[in-house]
Amino acid sequence: MATAEAARPMTAEEKKVIFASSLGTVFEWYDFYLYGSLAAIIGAQFFNVAGADGKPMFDEATRNIFSLLAFAAGFIVRPFGAIVFGRIGDLVGRKYTFLVTILLMGISTFVVAILPSSTSIGIAAPVILIALRLVQGLALGGEYGGAATYVAEHAPHGRRGFYTSWIQTTATLGLFLSLIVILATRTIIGEANFSAWGWRIPFGVSIVLLGVSVWIRLQLNESPAFQKMKEEGTHSKAPLTEAFGQWKNAKFAILALFGLVMGQGVVWYTGQFYALFFLQSILKIDGYTANLLIAYSLAIGTIGFVIFGGLSDRIGRKPIILAGCLLAALTYFPLFGALTKNANPTLANALETVKVEVVADAADCGDLFNPVGTRKFTSSCDVARDALSKGAIKYTTSTTAAAGEKAKVVVQGKEVQVFKDGKLDPDFGKNLIAVAVEAGYPKADDPNKVKLTGVLDIFKPQTLTIIGILTILVVYVTMVYGPIAAALVELFPTRIRYTSMSLPYHIGNGWFGGLLPATAFALVAQTGDIYYGLWYPIVFALITFVIGLIFVPETKDRDIYADD
Q: What pTM, to 2 d.p., does this model score?
């Protein structure tokens, strides 16, 4: 019977379920990613608060940091949304719960389109903005579990990996959609108008997407599995207590987090988001080129979600997810090294040939760990190392200076003083860059750096090689992410499935994954090694590989209704 079910074609109703669930999730991811894509403009619009003297309280860099923190806030609250809406989903049903989440997401996004800036309403503007972002994070925390559970409970036995893999494509498609709408708006109205008022249009578009998604989802029926339990009165009356207060269920939530989702989360964010960050912030590739390179790799690799989801129906969820974690951990260093050599060959050569040393008093060198970017460094040693890390200049630290002596940077034997007359030399940054460029580091307009002048300007060996490297990273993403929904669904009984799978998923992705770019860069700054941040995903991916291999059961052949 199971074989017959798996072999039959997808029915019209099943196609409708997958399409409607996926479409709504795409729109939610679209809303979620707008904050990150428009961080600089949001910073200027909503964090340009005047102080008592009438002058802006924050400079441009600080405003950008606050806007990125607003973006990160959505990730931080996702697990709490999973708890709230997971519980509701197991109490009242899947359909209406994730219908509520998309209403919250869509409305909170649209309000940003009409929210006055800080120049109009002062401090109220960023406060309201952050509140709206928190609502978004809570909504997303409830959406994914509902969509994955809903689709899985409509899928025939033996096809759950393939069916739920369509949900896994939605994060990438939502990112695509946000970039397309932003690019189209910029092109049509011009950059000046976009910065002034046009940036609101992508947020305003969300109300149209919301209407379409709500209309489609209202046409759907409740999950048949939940409907049956509801009619029989056997659904859970206390899903949180049952899911996390009973060891027989709680242990699987813990195993799901550390043996599956934690590694999946860091591999996903490394392949899509940290790769983009690495290109822009470390390799100094312009934003247009970097985004286009990532877009091409995603376009090529996205089909992997469906391929690996379908493959997991045949060979299992664990082998694919854990193989993705292991391959990523073993190859990240050579892949990112190859990315540097191809995207910015002058920098790659300088990293190997130019010796840069910070000579300082050990007492002058503190902790540079600065994941949210809000710390201000004042000691000469810390100022020097912070400047070097932001300039993607590899350095070592020698604490051989005399006690109380101010730090200096030595580039190929040439000294650059950090302090002058007991205070920071205002020309230090300029002098450092000049000496570094003279020694072999690339200029800002280095002709060897990859640069695209148009969408079709990719048919060059350098560009195609970079896209190939980025596509490999995306393939790892699809390996760990494609089967994950099916694996999570199959770990838990129907009566607490929404609650149980949502929390580990959003902790793994919202916390371990979502905080990866900032934390990884902080590690780079602390050590002076542009590749050191890769240890973050590597360590967590390896932990997941070991725990998953030893403790997580294979679930592909489970009857997900056996414990109902």
A: 0.88
